[in-house]
Structure formats: C-alpha cells, structure tokens
Amino acid sequence: MVAEVTPESPAAQAGVVPGWPVQVYSVQHDGSSLKNTITVRPLNSAQEHDFGVTGEGATVPASRDNIRQEHKISPPSLMLTFRSSCHAPQALFESRRLPDGPLYIRFDKFDAPETDKVAAAFRAADQRGVIIDLRFNTGGKPALLLNQIMPRGAELYREKRSSGPKMVRADYWTHRYTGKIVVLIGPALKSAAEVVPWVLQHAGKALLVGRPTGGAVLGAGFFPLPDGGVAEVAVEDIEMLDGSHLEGKGVRPDVEVYPAPEDVRSGKDAALEAAIHALGF
C-alpha cells in the first residue's frame, strides 16, 4: 500500500495517491534517471474516471508526458510510469507547533544543514515536549542530533571498521534540550538513522512510537569496476553499547501503532495521535 507521497515529487506529479493498494512496483536505471513503474488498484470509480480507465484492456494516453496508464484486469488496475532523478532528493524539513500541544519536527536526513534547523527548533521548544518524526529518515550522521540531546561526553555507539572499533561520544557545547521527547519510527527509517531511536530509548531520553525500523544499518563504500559499473560493499558496522547490532533486526518501538488502510486513505496519522497522547495531550 502507498503510505505517503512526497509533495512535488515525480510520484506526486504522476498522481500517485496514499492508500492505493500496490500490486507491482519496480525501479529500472535508465541512463541519467530512474524509471519507476507502479501498478495499483484505484480505490473507487471516481479515481478510475480521473485516470481515463474506460474498460478492460484499454490503454489511455496520459495528460502528462511522463505517465502511462493501462487498465489491465478486473478489478481495474492502473500502471503508472514516471521518471525520477538518480540524485538524492532535496531533504525535507518541517517544524510546527501542534494545536495547544508539543512541537513537531520532521527531517529526512542527518546532515549539517538539516540538523542546524533542528537545533534552532529545539531552542524554541518548551516543556510541553517535542515529537521528532524520523519515519522517513534515510540516514547520515546520527551524532548530529544526539549531540543536542545527550550529555556532553556520553557514550553513544561504536563504529566498527577494518581499522578497529571507535567509540562515538556526544560532543556539543551549546543548547541541549532536556524536555520530554517522543520519536516516531517505522520501516522506512533506515541506515545510521536507526541508531538515534535506539540510543535515546536505552538512555531513557525518549519514548518510541510507531513500527519497527528497517534494520539496514551497515555503512557501504562504492568501488569502481573495470566495465564502468560500481560495486557497493559494506565497510562499516555499528555496535550498540550493549554489544548488539541493529542490522537485520531494527529497533522496536515502546508503543506499536499499525495504521489501518482507511486511516492512510483519509489522511489520519494514528502514530502521531498516539505520540501526542503519550505527551499528555
């Protein structure tokens, strides 16, 4: 099922809708771009009409150049094809005060520009609490966020390379947020971003709400091949303070919330509602 569609993304421009049941999804590298193909089942006859589905086996030209629709089987299905860049999309950042409640912060990559924005948001936060939405975070340098929450000098995790293990410690000398924190997590949360909820959970600094994370934590290097291709090979692992590894396991939330399909289709965010409730609102 399509869980979320990023605003202004190629998928959004193609008309992909949250809540659509997905039958087939594939990505093919095509020169300088990625060719994405998704076959979905429309939710109702109005959506079938919007996409020009007129009968079994009919193929209808798209109103946009990069989309193709095809009515394949009964119940009706749509095949959408759209292209996206091979480069990483622009990181999304959002900070807003929820009505009469906590501060909500979402960012999708742990890099310096985004975490600087998070630091500014923390400085504006109060004791009503903060909800950090990491459900779609793709990784980066987790210490950039942990430095803003954990005490300076606190042990965070170990980086393990062929050269040996290295302990990563919190090192921050400016404002540190000490209020209540709830972190939203889910299966799309991956890579080094998974380290953050584990550290905060085990340090007693945050409550985790949502679904288990993806368990894809190994750091990779890229090595050129003689034919012009590139091999991606794991070169780094992350070991938690208790000796455990998140690869293939992920992080489990304190409060598990599994959204119902009708919630996704209506735009209801059950996990966010549970986070707000956990903070006492």
Write a brief structural summary.
Strand 11 (181-185), helix 5 and strand 12 form a beta-alpha-beta unit. This protein has helices at residues 10-14, 45-50, 112-124, 143-146, 195-202, 261-266, 270-278; strands spanning 22-30, 33-40, 59-61, 68-70, 78-85, 93-97, 103-107, 130-133, 155-161, 164-169, 181-185, 207-210, 219-224, 230-239, 255-256.
Major sheet: arrangement of strands:
6-7-8-11-12-15
**N-to-C span:** 30 Å
Helix content: 10-25%
Strand segment tally: 15
Element order: H for helix, E for strand: HEEHEEEEEHEHEEEHEEEEHH
**How big a fraction of the residues is strand?**
25-35%
Q: Please outline the major beta sheet.
A: 6 strands, mixed
As a whole number of angstroms, the C-alpha radius of gyration is 21 Å
Query: What overall form do the CA principal axes indicate?
Result: globular
Structural class: alpha/beta
Residue runs with pLDDT of under 50 for 5 or more positions: 52-73
The overall average pLDDT, rounded, is 83
